[in-house]
Amino acid sequence: MKTMTCKSLGGPCEQKLSAGSWDEMVQTMTKHVMEKHPETAKAMEKMHNEDPKRWGRETKPKWEATPET
């Protein structure tokens, strides 16, 4: 299990999000942003439409560097 903040994953707040795998964290972050930060969700969707792998390229190394809790 790893814990990261919304901000460290590209969002605007310090809410802690935990997940057991990268794929689970992607789902957790997506749900959080859609519920709590609709404007950020729109910006992330636009980025995804322009370059579907960009967020993962930029964010997965942070996940990999985060220690297990």
UniProtKB/TrEMBL annotation:
This is Putative small metal-binding protein. Residues 43-69 are annotated as: Disordered. InterPro entries: DUF1059.
